[in-house]
Amino acid sequence: MSQRFGKYRLMRRIAIGGMAEIFVARREGMQGFHKTIVIKRIRPHLSENPTFVNMFLNEARLAAELNHSNIAQIYDLGRIAKSYFIAMEYINGRDMRTIVPKAEKQGIPFPMEYSLKVARDVCEGLYYAHRHSDEKGRPLNIVHRDVTPENIMVSFDGEVKILDFGIAKAENLVSETRAGEIKGKLGYLSPEQINGKAVDHRSDLFGLGVVLYEWITGHKLFTGSSDVEVLRAVLEGRIYPPSYFREDVPGEVETILMRALERNREQRYQSAWDMLADIDEFLSHHTFMPSNIHLSNFLRQIFADELERPPPEDEFPGEEPEADGEESQRTMLVDTGRHRLGPPGDEPAATGNDDLLAVEIRLSPDHYRCLSQLARYHGLGMDELIGQILDGYCRFLPPVSEQPAPDDE
Fold first, then answer.
1. Which residues, 6 or more positions from 210, have their beta carbon under 8 angstroms from its beta carbon?
2. Burial of 396 (0-12, 13-18, 19+ CB in 10 A)
3. How many whole angstroms separate alpha carbon 95 and alpha carbon 240?
4. 92-307 maps to which CATH number?
5. Which strands, in side-by-side order, build the sheet including 3-5?
6. Which of 120, 223, 323, 409 matches a 20 to 30 Å C-alpha distance to 179?
7. Dist CA 60 CA 166 (whole Å)
8. Has residue 291 got a pLDDT over 50?
9. In the β-sheet with 93-95, what is the strand arrangement from edge to edge?
10. How far apart are CA 58 and CA 61, in angstroms?
11. pLDDT at 232 over 60
């Protein structure tokens, strides 16, 4: 049985990061209706940061207004108990951070034509978002701020989707709040982001230029042995023409890339439509102009080994669904070995084996899921895992005879 999260059933977790856990989930309705979606659940510690929550909600509300074939749709935004979440479109595919290395591992460099096809579709989504207005016709000035390979998905049907539109600003806030400095995917930031200037739509075009350069040349544009070196490379480093790495890069493609990568945004592409038009102009006169079908066939070829596998089982077998909005606890009886968990005279009841003690512990659902996954990963039972955790903890404690007695009240 899957785990219930409000009106959604969480089927399996597919990613976890500093900001959120991401699950494949299912929305169920009457007479067998269901829809597979993605739940992005914000980590509990961030829900206690009111500045982050306000910015996250505002940005997510803006992103939810976007309805375009090249942007992953947001269906729902809300809170269950202490968890804020977004319900998003499920895309059966892979992100470009995964696609390009997968092809290269099979000795198939990702074709330049497909790189341009993906980039022109991203331009379509960006152009729609950048010029989107509210119901009264007022520009919303939406900027993605995080155009990176992992935020560009390609479905196995050949559709290109931009992920996490409008959420990057909130993510950056968390990084800056924690460290007092710019954090994140530094090699894809625009110069104006690093310089702390007001960011507009042209920043996204610089980021797209960086990823397109990487796909076509096979080389990361801005690198360094430290964050400072990467930032300096973005601001000052030489940008070699793509033909420096690949002599067969057509002049028109090189011109497109170098214009997108202009550090002075006044000399950069002024709209995603301008960049899209130049890419279409090149492809229309090129020997091969790929379609969604071509891209789909290519992905299904390089991911054939993964597509042949049976779909994964639900990640939460046998777990009872939680009541909506409740933080229920799970009780376990755990063999804890010889360790004394309390002060002298407060030993847990023996189990009949002189070498083992049993203790009843209560775990929140989040802690139980975390320990369950860790136990499965290491091939251990839950009691074995907790025993190992106690071993590690008690190793640094003095013997019980040397511990100070508790103060008398």
1. 187, 188, 221, 222, 261
2. exposed
3. 26
4. 1.10.510.10
5. 3-5, 8-16, 20-28, 34-42, 83-89, 74-80
6. 223
7. 6
8. yes
9. 93-95, 152-155, 160-162
10. 5
11. yes
Structure tokens that stand for 8 in this block: 């959604």
For 56, what's the count of Cα atoms within 13 Å in the CB-facing half-sphere? 25
What is the rounded distance in angstroms from the CA atom of residue 154 to the CA atom of residue 160? 5
CA 321 – CA 2 distance, rounded (Å): 7
* Token duo for residue 26: 């299912």
Q: Is 182 helix (H, G, I), strand (E, B) or coil?
A: coil
d(CA 261, CA 253): 12
Condensed to tens digits (0 to 9), the pLDDT of residues 242-286 reads 999 999 999 999 999 999 999 999 999 999 999 999 999 999 999
Does residue 164 come out as left (phi exceeding 0), alpha (psi in the -120 to 50 range) or beta? left
Residue type, 51: T
| pLDDT, average across residues 79-83 | 83
Residue 154's DSSP bridge partners are: 94, 160
**Weakest-pLDDT range from 101-105, 116-120, 353-357, 361-365:** 353-357
Q: Residue 48 and residue 35: Cα distance in Å, rounded? A: 31
CA separation, residue 45 to residues 88, 269, 401 (Å):
22, 40, 38
Closest by CA position to 367, among listed 332, 396, 333: 332
How far is C-alpha 405 from the chain's CA centre? 48
Alpha helices (runs of H) in 251-311, residue ranges in sequence order: 251-260, 272-284, 292-302, 304-307
Catalytic residue among 76, 95, 146, 391: 146
Contacts of 75 (CB under 8 A, 6+ apart): 37, 64, 87, 88, 89
Neighbours of 102 (CB within 10 A): 17
Q: Domain coordinates of the chain in residue numbers?
A: 92-307, 330-402
Tell me how far apart the alpha carbons of residues 306 and 285 are, in angstroms, rounded to a whole number.
Answer: 35
Contact criterion met (CB below 8 Å) for 341 and 394: no
Q: pLDDT, tens digit, for every residue of 383-394?
A: 667 777 776 666
- State residue 280 phi and psi, 5-degree precision: -65, -40
Phi, psi of 209 (to 5 degrees): -60, -40
For 37, how many CA atoms within 13 A lie in the half-sphere containing its CB? 23
